[in-house]
Design goal:
13% strand; seven-stranded parallel beta sheet; Rossmann fold; alpha/beta; single chain
């Protein structure tokens, strides 16, 4: 009796998420392209052009921002959650202190910070990023700029701010936090306050930071660069002491736009 030829097995079902991940992998994003090793001189020159364009566009847009506080945190935090409400309250507190609230311009904690500032009558800024699948700008910003590269975006999120508030987040938030902390630690950035909101969430991380100090991989005083609290009023008081008073900050008049440069007046 002749054996039947085995039938070709059906390929396993592919989820929409797997398709999305494959599309993202195949797509040459700007960061992926220029970080993929040596290229032609022309392509590197074009990258330099785009980097300069990123910075020039941001400088022209954010020249109108007053002294800022940057709020970092997860894009996945849902409206109505405790951390979202904390982000709203921190944005409002920054506005009451006379700061412009700056975030990455996306959803989650970023939206919460912008919303709190916006609804409290403060100025609200978003520094968005071009992604293969667009990160939509949240609706609570008075002025925004969209960056092509992650590293230019991180630079702008630091450049205009006198304090940094970090709510629970993922790899991106940790990256932003530790880069900012390194700039402060090495003296590249003035000793601006860095505040972590959510003691329970940050407890394992702070245990690691203290362990690094014990092992001598950071200086004994480096953990003191970080202020951890659950209380928005405590955070606002820390900002008042270590940003407003220390650096003599005050609410500034909004600079007038120069039409010859194609600038538009910011509204707040």
């Amino acid at each position: 009796m002749k054996a039947k030829a085995p039938q070709n097995p059906q390929p396993p079902a592919v989820s929409e998420e797997e398709i999305r991940q494959q599309e993202v992998f195949e797509l040459e994003s700007p960061d992926r392209t220029w970080l993929s090793g040596p290229r032609s001189r022309w392509r590197d020159a074009m990258t330099l052009f785009h980097v300069c364009r990123d910075f020039i566009r941001a400088f022209r847009t954010l020249h109108f921002a007053g002294p800022c506080v940057t709020i970092f945190g997860s894009a996945r935090t849902m409206p109505g959650s405790d951390f979202y409400r904390m982000g709203e309250e921190m944005g409002a507190a920054c506005a009451r202190l006379g700061f412009t609230t700056m975030t990455g311009g996306g959803p989650g904690i970023m939206e919460a910070g912008n919303k709190g500032a916006f609804e409290a009558g403060g100025c609200s800024i978003g520094v968005n990023i071009e992604l293969p699948f667009e990160q939509h700008l949240n609706p609570y910003v008075h002025r925004s700029v969209t960056m092509r590269y992650f590293f230019t975006r991180k630079t702008i999120l630091v450049k205009y701010s006198y304090a940094f508030i970090v709510l629970p987040g993922g790899f991106g938030s940790l990256d932003e936090m530790f880069e900012t902390l390194t700039l402060i630690q090495t003296g590249k950035l003035r000793n601006f306050p860095l505040i972590l909101m959510g003691k329970d969430f940050w407890k394992p991380l702070m245990e690691l930071v203290y362990h690094m100090a014990e092992e001598g991989t950071i200086s004994p005083g480096d953990p003191d660069l970080i202020f951890v609290t659950d209380d928005v009023e405590d955070a606002a008081a820390h900002l008042q002491r270590h940003a407003v008073r220390q650096f003599g900050l005050r609410r500034k008049a909004v600079p007038r736009a120069m039409k010859i440069l194609g600038e538009k007046q910011v509204e707040s």
